[in-house]
Description:
Elements: H1 2-9, H2 12-24, H3 33-46, H4 58-75, H5 85-91, H6 100-110
Protein name: Ras-GEF domain-containing protein
Organism: Lottia gigantea (Giant owl limpet)
Pfam families: RasGEF (PF00617)
Amino acid sequence: MIEKLQTLVSSEGRFKNMRDALHRCDPPCIPYLGMYLTDLSFIEEGTPNFTDEGLVNFSKMRMIAHVIREIRLFQQTSYRIEHHPRVTSYLLDPSRLLDEEQTYKHSLEIEPKQSRLSVVSAPS
Length: 124
């Protein structure tokens, strides 16, 4: 199951697997916002605001509008979530809260920090 999820959220091919899954699913769903932020960053950095003639680059504006339209599509579908008091009380239980140090410690247990110096590149 973890391998399937890793394949789904992989950034390979501009998040190709996730885009395919999102286009096949029936809303409501919550897409990965980082995918759209990456798209917007590439558009912003790789496309000039103005054409060589000094005119507004409407092609760039259309690309931005397309990304925003896709995000809004997912926002327009309402969610039908049943309220379960036990779940709410579990999630809001203050005794389960961790301070920043505890959170960092747990994070390192799950995914140990690697030094850039200790990472050795494999020969090509």
